[in-house]
Amino acid sequence: MDKTKWTPTVFDFCVEFGRQMILCGANLERVQVEIDRIAHAYEIEDHSLYLLSSFLSMAGREKDGTYVSREVSIPPMNIHLDRLKRLNSMYYRVIEETPPPEILMKWLEEAKDAKEYPWWVVNLAQIAALCCVAMMFGGRISEVISMIFIVFGLQVLIQLMKWPGLDRIVVNATLMFAATTMGYFIFTDYSLNFPIILITASIMLIPGIPMVNAARNLLCGNEMNGILQVFKVTIETLSLAAGIVIAIWLFDIPGVMQNVVVDGPTSALYLIVLSFLVSFFNGITFKITPRDLFFAGIGGALSRVVLILVPAATRNPLLIATIAALVAASYAEILANKRSTPSTYFIYPSILPMIPGGSFYYAIIGIYSGDRAMFLLNGKECLLTLCGMSIGFVLSSIIAHYIRKVRHTHLTIDRAVK
User: How far apart are the first and last CA of the chain?
Assistant: First the structure.
């Protein structure tokens, strides 16, 4: 095939490849680098790429002076880490082999054809993960059983609200209203620890991964997308708070919200095992292959070890979260290098045990009850924890990047000497 005619075909491949990567959960800087390298491999030097989490545009000029451009919209992220792993492996294959452009789309379709867990397995895994979260906050068997019914109800609502295509803000507010309502009526019948139920439900719905990705984009040079994502996840998080407050106001829920103390287990081993299980089951919901689920669970356990040990030296939530995220992300980077996967593959499952559901919940209760001190204390802790998680993940990526760069330089020098 004439190289001057490669550009349109390669552009078609690049934009669809980038679209699928972002849809599956890849961070933007990784997609940017990989598309740039594919274009370079096919000798398309004069090109530009504009990325948002919802939009991708690529333009360039062929050797005969003809301009080529492609634009695609990107649906909301639907994390599928096995597909992301396959797409990443295909990318390395394209770079190494530089196949004829006409077969690139075939390779892409093959990479997208990842195995799926049955829907009921994914739903059960999410229920199991959140039951473990409830136990981490001190939930008894009665709270765990209640969470099974509540999470199942939320899963049904999520599927129903997909049909009319409602905005995420409306969906979040509706889901949190439903969780609060179900939790309250179960509470009044069985005297459950109501805060544990709502904290666990909020962890299911808080956009933790988009928050981390938003901060990561801000710190890694994608400022425009980072600002848009920060605004988006902030509104979505506030919609969760609105759902809680509307249910409290509508049903005139009394002071059970702030009077019941959340007192989690004190056994370090118990918490570590629960964190392992949370990340293990979360790996299923993110569609990690069965052989990698154990390693995903280890990431959650490592982050819990840090969350247990570091507070002995400092009570600063920013520092605690940064160190926990740095350890979990460094583990993910090392494992990704050994198993030829993107680090995201092991980072995402480890996030759930770190999400500050408790401080988010009590910040909302502070707003509702007019307790300014409660709101400021818990709101600050929630914000600092999320920022610390983002900083830890970014630091790990930067360190890994420079290690790979130094290693590549040494290999290049060794080959030149030989």
Answer: 35
Range of the domain at 175: 119-403
Residue keyed to tokens 């030296």: 313
Across the range 64-68, mean pLDDT stands at 75
pLDDT at 189 (0 to 100): 61
**What span, in angstroms and rounded, lies between the C-alpha atoms of 214 and 70?**
25
- Structure token pair of residue 391: 């900083």
Q: Please state, as a whole number, how many other Cβ atoms lie within 10 Å of the Cβ of residue 270.
A: 13
Domain boundary among 73, 89, 112: 112
Distances (CA, A) of 262 to 191, 197, 259, 362: 14, 10, 10, 10
Residue 40 lies in a domain: yes
> What is the rounded distance in angstroms from the CA atom of residue 170 to the CA atom of residue 160?
13
CB 4 within 8 A of CB 101: no
pLDDT tens digits along 330-359: 998 888 888 778 888 888 888 888 888 778
Closest among 200, 181, 13, 226 to 100, alpha carbons compared: 13
Contacts of 15 (CB under 8 A, 6+ apart): 56, 58, 70, 71, 72
110 Cβ contact list (under 8 Å, min separation 6): 90
Predicted TM-score (pTM) of the model is 0.85
Query: 325, 392 in Cβ contact below 8 A?
Result: yes
